[in-house]
Design brief:
The protein is an alpha/beta fold and 189 residues long. Helices cover 57% and strands 7% of the residues. Strands 2-1-3-4 form a 4-stranded parallel beta sheet, with helices on both faces.
Length: 189
């Protein structure tokens, strides 16, 4: 099986429950997350701007990602030359698309698929998916492993404690309601 490679857009990295799920799915080898310093810098800024994390906490979480997913970064020199030819208007999105193209085949996971024109990116080996669609597909292929990750997420939550259903509720609120419902149904089987 070829490991899927994904690059999450910053808009799927908050609330933290969705980022946590994506990172944990990497840890059990259901996909590989690639990241850039540009992505982590933008993410830390967004967390601070939105009051989700303090600057110190945001930087620590980004450092944790760097350490846990070492070797999965895309150095800027690998994609900088691709940025000018990327479609779209947003400079951050063009950098993310360029990094994905540098590690093609890669799927950009984003809530704003319209910001990543799919036809020109497909020619570069980049696909674009909404998080709910991507996670549903992954769940359909690996229902046991994905469900186990959700159960593990709940077991690791202590402040406040969370059940698997609580985790699924948080995931549904974070923009993956169909995925959360399907995993919830499996938990009831």
């Amino acid at each position: 099986m070829a490991l899927r490679r994904i690059l999450p857009d910053t808009n799927v990295c908050y609330p933290i429950s969705l980022l946590d799920l994506l990172l944990r799915l990497d840890e059990v080898s259901l996909h590989e997350i690639v990241w850039t310093e540009d992505l982590l810098g933008e993410l830390a800024d967004k967390w601070v701007e939105r009051g989700i994390r303090s600057r110190e906490a945001a930087e620590k979480l980004c450092d944790d990602i760097r350490v846990a997913f070492v070797g999965q970064d895309v150095p800027r020199e690998d994609y900088e030359g691709l940025i000018p030819m990327m479609p779209g208007r947003d400079p951050d999105d063009r950098r993310h698309a360029a990094a994905a193209a540098a590690r093609a085949p890669t799927t950009v996971i984003t809530r704003n698929v319209r910001d990543f024109p799919s036809k020109p990116l497909a020619q570069l080996g980049v696909s674009v998916r909404r998080p709910d669609d991507y996670l549903i597909e992954l769940f359909e292929e690996y229902p046991g492993q994905v469900t186990a990750v959700v159960i593990e997420m709940a077991a690791d939550r202590h402040q406040p404690p969370m059940s698997p259903q609580d985790v699924l509720g948080a995931l549904a609120r974070s923009g993956v309601p169909v995925f959360a419902r399907r995993v919830g149904q499996r938990l009831l089987e």
